[in-house]
Amino acid sequence: MENMDLIYKRVINASLDVIISINEKEEILLWNDASSKTFGYMEDEVLGKPITLIIPKKYHRKHKNGMRRFIKTGKAKLIGKVVEVEGIKKDGSLFPIELSLSASKSRKGFIFTAIIRDISERKFLEKKLEDMAIRDSLTWMYNRHYFNEVINREFERAKRYRYFISMMIIDVDKFKIINDNYGHARGDLVLKGIAECLEKNLRSSDIVIRYGGDEFLAVLPKANGRDLRTVMEKVKKRVKEWSENSDFGFPVSISCGGYALNPDRKKNVDEVLKEADKRLYKDKKR
């Protein structure tokens, strides 16, 4: 009859999940093939080594405290549960994992076994789905739904910490003519190009939204009237330069209107938008 230890090892190595066992000294006793594929260490590199080899430093204290508590009292926070944390690979890169722990008593003390799954792909897909819900599919700027979710919060924060907040509306000049004369595909390229100009020339703290067909909206926290005027001129200039360097065969320009809200002024989002829209209309008339 085939040796049971050999059968056991074959079963463990056939698992697609990472299976790792350690003793009370935190030394690695079991390391299956999936562990090597996931973490990058071969079995002979880790056996007898501390499990902290694959645990990010930010978890070290919690891990050690949890081990001590369980060995002394039998009480555990993680054992018997499935949690999402991060692991660290041989190359030092962090990645998301799903972890479940179990403990068993042996003559030499407790043996702790972890079943681990790399959930990087799942997290990527989740993030993609989240982005699809709040991003415009053409320009990948935030969409109106996202704007409606965050704008009141941004206004409340500006009011609480007493700083200016500005809103800027950007409209593509003669966009209907571009679509009618050159086609919607060319119009889409114009929108993508302008979105890229906005993203490159605004701060990371600014929020850019595709607000309508050819209309973008930017929320600029901590930007007063002077800052707003500077940003509008800068964006217009960058769009003009981008247009001149493109091969569209026609000029592309934008009009801008904005309003900087003083924290002492009591205006709501709709009122600020209305003021910004009035200024946009004046700019288009020039």
Report a brief summary of the structure.
With 286 residues, the protein is α+β, with helices and mostly antiparallel strands. 46% of the residues lie in helices and 23% in strands.
Please, could you describe this protein's structure?
With 286 residues, the protein is an alpha+beta fold. It folds into two domains: 4-123, Beta-Lactamase; 135-285, Alpha-Beta Plaits, CATH 3.30.70.270. Helices cover 46% and strands 23% of the residues. It has ten helices and nine strands. It has helices at 4-14, 33-39, 43-46, 60-73, 120-134, 144-160, 175-182, 184-201, 225-244, 269-285, and strands at 18-22, 28-31, 82-88, 94-106, 109-118, 165-172, 207-210, 215-221, 254-261. The protein has a five-stranded antiparallel beta sheet with strand order 2-1-5-4-3. Strands 7-8-6-9 form a four-stranded antiparallel beta sheet, with helices on both faces. Strand 4 (94-106) and strand 5 (109-118) form a beta hairpin. Helix 7 packs across helix 8 and helix 8 packs across helix 9. The mean pLDDT is 93.
